[in-house]
Q: What sequence folds into this?
C-alpha cells in the first residue's frame, strides 16, 4: 500500500539473490510476494529462521521458503526450500527485490502545498506551509498544523488534531487522534543485518496504525513495522519524547508517560500504565492491566494484572521492600 | 491571557456540568472564573479534592467549590458546595466551559510570515520562513531562527536567541533567553481523567515562563501548566532532549543535563545540578543546592544541600559505598 | 572553517581578558590562535588546567599558555605563562575573542531556498522548502528532505539520504550517510562556566564529522565539539532520540539503540553495541567490541571485549547472577 511492489520474480532470481546456487530452482516458477509463514499464499515466498516458529512453519501454504539446513524438515514437503547460511540477510535482500526503497524513507516526490490541493479537502483545516502527498485521505473536521508533512497514501480520520512540525508517512490514523507538535511517525525502524563492510538495511514494508482516540506527545517517534505493523490501540495516551520501535503493538486505554522507550516487536496489553523513562526490551509480552513504575527496565514477559518496578523490574511489593531495607 | 475566557456562567449551568442536580444551585448566581483555592475571588468557583489542601480550603474566598462529601466540612460555611464523585473530572469539565480548547493545542489562525509583519519588529532579526501570531511582543536585538513559529500573545524579551524549528506558544520569555534548535515550549501537558470509553483531557490554561538568561537545549519539550504555570528560573541551563512536564517550577542557576525528565508539578530549588537521564517524579520538593547524579530516579523529596544518586536515589555517599561493596 | 577567526591579538589584550595584569605581557607580541596543548604552534596560545595533561604540557610548542600558579612548572621555560584563578573561564573568554559567536548557534544569514541555488547542485535531489547556505558542498545522488536546513560551509558526500526537518550545521558528512527525519546535528554543546550572575558560555569551535555509511535515527541530536570535533565512525548505526554531547568520538561498526545518551568527551571504540536508554558518563574510554546492556549507566572506563550491564554497569555475568539471586 505504501511501498510499490515489484515482481513477480522467478524462483531462480530470488534464489540467486540469496546466494543459493541450487540448480533445481527453475526460471519457470514465479514468486508473487514475500510474506511471513502464516500470511504467505501459494504464490509467495516466506522465511523460517527460528524454532520458535515451528508450528507456523508446519502449516505454511507458501510456495517456497528461505531457511537453513537444520530447519527444513519442519516445513511441508511440497514447499520449495532455499537453504542459506544467514536467513535474515537473505530475507532482507529478497524483501528489497520486491519492495525497493523500503529500507529507507524515500523522498516523497508527490508533495504539494496544501493551498494547491485544498479543494480536495473541503472540511479540513490546514495551517501554514503544510505539504500533502498524493492519495492522502483526511476526514472532516480534522486540523493539520503548521509546517507539517503528510506523505502519500496516508489516511487520517475525522476530528483528528495534528500539531506543527509533524511528519506522517506510511501510517493510518483513525478518528479522534491527536498528535502534538513534532511527532515523527512512520519512519524506518532500526533494523539491519550487521556487516563490518556495510550494514545491510532490512526492508520496512509495514505501516503504523494509530487507533481511534489516541494521543501522542511532542517529540515522540513511532517507527513503522518491518514485515508487520506498529499499532497504537484505541484511547491510548502517550506523553512527550516516547520512542516506539518497529512492530510494537500497544493495546487500548494505555497511559505511557514521558521518555518511555520500547524496543522492537513487543506486545503490550490493554489498560497498561507505564511511568516515565521506563524501558521495555524487545520481543516481550506485557499483559493486560499491568503497571510499570517510572524508570523501570523490563526484560522479561509480565503476566496480566501485575505491578512491577525496578531495573530490571520486579514485583512492586518486592521493590518497595528492598528499597525500604536499603534506606 | 493565552486562552479566551468565556462566561460568566450560572451556578446552575456549572452544577449541571458537574452532574450535580442539587436544586439549590440557582440560575441567578453567576460565576466568573475557575481558580485554585488560594487565588479564587468572591466571584469564582474553586475545587478541593485532597486533604493535603485543607488549610487553603479553610481560607478560600471562593463563591463556590467543587468537592466531595467527606471534604465539605473544611470549607467556609458561606462557600457554596457542589458535591461530586470525581472532583478532578468535574473540574476539567468546568475548566473547558470557561476556557474552551485549552485541552488541546488549538491551531493559531493568526500566524503570518515574518516578512509581512517585520515592520512591527524593527529591531528583531528573523530567519527564513518564520511565522508570527497576533499580539506577539519581541524585544530588541532578539534573533528568531529559520522555520520557527511564535504563536499569538507570546512575549519574548530583549537579546534572546531562538534557534530553528522552534515552536513557542502560551509562553513568556524574559531577556537573554537562548532556545536551541527544535525546542517545543508551551504545549499541552499530559493531564487527563482516564475513561475506558474516552479519556477526558484536562484544560491547560497555565503558561510557561522562562526567566532571564536561561538556556534550553535542542529537542527539549516544556509543557505549559494546567491551572498554574511551568517556570524555568533565571540563569538556569538545560541540555538537549530534556522533558519538563506541566506545572514544574525550577529555580535559578540550575544545571540540567541531557535527557533528564520531570514528571508534573515538582518544585526544584536554586543551584540544583542534575546529571544526564535522571528522572524526577511528580509532586516532589527538591531543595536548594541539591545535586542529583546521572541516571538517578528521584521518588521522594530532597532537603537542601544534599547530594543523591541511584534508582531510587539515596545519599551519594551511601550509593558509592554500596557500589564499591558490589564490585 | 565554520567560525571566522579574528586576530591576531596582542598578548597584552589576551592577558587583560584573562584579568591578569602582569606588566610583562607585551603589546608587541602577537597571538594567532588558541589551540590545545598538542596542536598549538609557535604563534598560538594554549591552556593547561589539569595535571592529567602534564606530559602534553611539557612538549607544547605554544608561544603562551593560560594556566595556574601550581601548574606553571610543568610548561617549557620559554612558554609565556598567563597565570589565572579559573583557567577554563579565561580560556572561554579568549576563545570568544578569537571566535566571536562560537558560543551560540548564530543565525546563518546566507541561507537561500534550494530552488534559487539548484543550478549549483545538478545531481542533488531537493525536497520542498529546503534552505541551503553559502559554500555548501553536496555530492552527487544525495537527497535532501523537505523543510531541511543545510547551513553554510557544510559538506555532504555522495549518495547521502537526509530526511525532513533535519538541521545540519558545522558538520562534514562523508558518503553514504543517512540521517532520518528531525536529526539536529552540529548545535552548540552544553558547556559553560557557571556563574550565579550569568553563566559564561564556552566557545564551540569544533565540528561534527559523520563518517562513511553511518546512520542517525529520528530526533537524535549531535552537538559539535568545543575545542576538538565530535566524530561518528564508519558504518555506525544510531537509533532514534539518541543524544551525543560535544567531543564524543564513536568508532566504526557500532550499534547504538534508542534513547542512549553520551555525556561529553568520551571515546567509544569500534564494534561497540549499546542497548536502549543506556547512559555513558563524560570523559570515559570505552574499548573495542564492548557490549553495554540496555538501561545501563556507565561511569568508568570499559576495557576491550567486555560485556556490561546495570546501573552502575558491572560485568554482564555478575549482573545476571545478582538479578537471579534477587528474584
A:
Amino acid at each position: 500500500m505504501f511501498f510499490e511492489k515489484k515482481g513477480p520474480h522467478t524462483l531462480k532470481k530470488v534464489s540467486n539473490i540469496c546466494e543459493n546456487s541450487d540448480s533445481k530452482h527453475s526460471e519457470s516458477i514465479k514468486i508473487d510476494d514475500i510474506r511471513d509463514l502464516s500470511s504467505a499464499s501459494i504464490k509467495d515466498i516466506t522465511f523460517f529462521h527460528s524454532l520458535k516458529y515451528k508450528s507456523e512453519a508446519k502449516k505454511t501454504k507458501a510456495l517456497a521458503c528461505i531457511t537453513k539446513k537444520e530447519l527444513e524438515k519442519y516445513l511441508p514437503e511440497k514447499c520449495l526450500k532455499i537453504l542459506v547460511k544467514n536467513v535474515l540477510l537473505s530475507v532482507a535482500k529478497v524483501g528489497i527485490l520486491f519492495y525497493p526503497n523500503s529500507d529507507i524513507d524515500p523522498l516523497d516526490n508527490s508533495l504539494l502545498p496544501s493551498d494547491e490541493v485544498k479543494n480536495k479537502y473541503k472540511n479540513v483545516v490546514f495551517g501554514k506551509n503544510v505539504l500533502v502527498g498524493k492519495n492522502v485521505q483526511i476526514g472532516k473536521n480534522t486540523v493539520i498544523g503548521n509546517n507539517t508533512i503528510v506523505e502519500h497514501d496516508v489516511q487520517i480520520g475525522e476530528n483528528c488534531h495534528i500539531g506543527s512540525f509533524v511528519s506522517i508517512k506510511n501510517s493510518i490514523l483513525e478518528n479522534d487522534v491527536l498528535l502534538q507538535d513534532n511527532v515523527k511517525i512512520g519512519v524506518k525502524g532500526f533494523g539491519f543485518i550487521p556487516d563490518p563492510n556495510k550494514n545491510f538495511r532490512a526492508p520496512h514494508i509495514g505501516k503504523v496504525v494509530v487507533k481511534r482516540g489516541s494521543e501522542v506527545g511532542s517529540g515522540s517517534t513511532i517507527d513503522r513495522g518491518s514485515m508487520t505493523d506498529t499499532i497504537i490501540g484505541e484511547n491510548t495516551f502517550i506523553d512527550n519524547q516516547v520512542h516506539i520501535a518497529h512492530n510494537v503493538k500497544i493495546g487500548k486505554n494505555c497511559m505511557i508517560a514521558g521518555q518511555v522507550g520500547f524496543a522492537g516487536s513487543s506486545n503490550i496489553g490493554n489498560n497498561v500504565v507505564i511511568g516515565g523513562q521506563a524501558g521495555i526490551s524487545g520481543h516481550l509480552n506485557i499483559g493486560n492491566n499491568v503497571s510499570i513504575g517510572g524508570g523501570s527496565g523490563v526484560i522479561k514477559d509480565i503476566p496480566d494484572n501485575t505491578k512491577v518496578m525496578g531495573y530490571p523490574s520486579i514485583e512492586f511489593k518486592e521493590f518497595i521492600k528492598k528499597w525500604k531495607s536499603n534506606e
Q: What stands out?
A: Residues 129 and 147 of chain A are 5 Å apart (CA to CA). Helices of chain A lie at 11-17, 54-59, 87-98, 114-117, 316-326.
